[in-house]
Amino acid sequence: MTNVSESAAEPGTAITDFGIDTTTLSTRDALRDYASRLRGGDIGSLPAILGLIALVVLFSLMSNVFFSLNNIANLLAQGAGQTIIAIGIVFVLLIGEIDLSAGTASGVAGAVLAMHYVDNGNLLNGMGSTVFYIFNAMLVLAAILAGLLRIWPGVAFSVLGIVLTVIGFQANPWIEMLLAVCVGAAIGCITGFLIAKIGMPSFVVTLALFLAWQGVILQLIGEGGVLGISSSHVLNEVANGNLSTAGSWVLCAVAAGGYTAVTLGGHLRRRRRGLVTAPTPLVVAKVVALGGFAVAVTALLTANRSPSKLIVISGVPYVVPIVLVLLVAGTYVLTRTTYGRHIYAIGGNMEAARRAGIDVTQLRASVFVICSACAAVGAIVYSSKVGSVDPQAGGLNTLLFAVGAAVIGGTSLFGGRGRVADAVIGGAVLAVVSNGLGLLRQPAAVVSIVTGLVLLLAATVDALSRRRVAIAGH
């Protein structure tokens, strides 16, 4: 009984951790067991990882620019915005829901950020009195709804958003980024209440809000208008700046060292307690492989990639630690907290979770707050990358690519299966597709077709793998 409960405590990790009893199986037996589970449909992120490797090899052979230092750094920044939005969408997909409004919600957050900067903190002047009062009324409503659901972070962010807009602090990039996250969280409170408390279908609610938030963006910016933010050094550096060489190696040491300590420490603790764990050689191999990859990437990015001898451009882009922080935080929440286990429980069987005493309504609403807050962070990164916010912010393919990244990475559309890392892997796949086809000078039509086919393939693999798991279970 102990082994079963411990294994269930970390959903979505069985494949990568080779979750078996090392007291009875050797490394060879563990690999054989892993292969057996793959044949049974429990494939996780493996197709996305193999696809990513194949794409990298293909584009590196077809373009001699693909593996250049400049392009590698650009590739990391290019897909960061949609990857961050995808991280939030993973939480929603895990409970079997969908958020079609995440893209335009990020656009609203980006528009408010840009307007606060352009109007030097005077949103009343920028929005006009009527829109300003309606905007703050929305924040008040979000705080009330979050309070009814007892989602206290949602209350805090909504109230903080009211304070920042009413007091009218002068333009400050840190205040503007905080305000964007507050707006995103408030949007999530409203979305979550309508879906979890009122009981409306998430598809209908978020589709309606997709259109509504698109209208809000038009109202704030104006048709054909553009709000530039590139003149702010801090806002511009979010997606276009780099860590120093020393800072890059510190990041590498912290990331690789932290991962090693957590992985090996957890492995040794489980062995001492006689719990289910992976064979030690496989754990060590995984740690060494990821550590070596981190060192190799850092070494490449700390080399001077400037085409001019007069200018030095080097260092890991700032978006890398931003994504890493969200990845670590999201993974910890899902695998190491009761809240995360409840998310998997609801995604697996909502009625069973309700009968087990889980507050399904509160938890279902809370994932939309997380999703919209992540969408706001994605808006900050994307707006920084392009240097402005326009009426199309968050529209077009933003949402489709974000959902696609989560699904391509291995998160199931049917709920109950997936990890935050899936969004990062899927985001890398989409970024490589877009970047590689761009280097080959393929038209936008070809990029859209290929991206759509990749997403369709991922959804097909997901459906087939679930069918094989169901058959194996019987």
Write the layout of secondary structure elements.
Blueprint: H1 2-8, H2 14-17, H3 27-39, H4 46-62, H5 69-78, H6 80-94, H7 102-118, H8 123-127, H9 129-148, H10 152-167, H11 173-197, H12 202-221, E1 227-228, H13 233-240, H14 245-272, H15 280-301, H16 319-336, H17 338-348, H18 350-355, H19 360-386, E2 388-389, H20 398-409, H21 420-439, H22 444-473
Antiparallel strand pairs: 1-2
Helix pairs in contact: 4-21, 6-16, 6-19, 6-20, 6-21, 7-11, 7-12, 7-19, 9-10, 9-11, 10-11, 11-19, 13-19, 14-15, 16-17, 20-21, 20-22, 21-22
Architecture overview:
A two-stranded antiparallel sheet has the order 1-2. Helices cover 74% and strands 1% of the residues. Mean pLDDT is 86; it is low at 1-22. The protein has 22 helices and 2 strands. The chain has a single domain, classed as ABC transporter involved in vitamin B12 uptake, BtuC (Orthogonal Bundle), CATH 1.10.3470. The chain is mainly α and 474 residues long. The two termini are 22 Å apart. Helix 9 runs antiparallel to helix 10 (152-167).
Describe the structure concisely for a colleague.
This protein is mainly alpha-helical. Helices cover 74% and strands 1% of the residues. Helix 6 runs parallel beside helix 16, helix 7 (102-118) runs parallel beside helix 12 (202-221) and helix 20 (398-409) packs across helix 21.
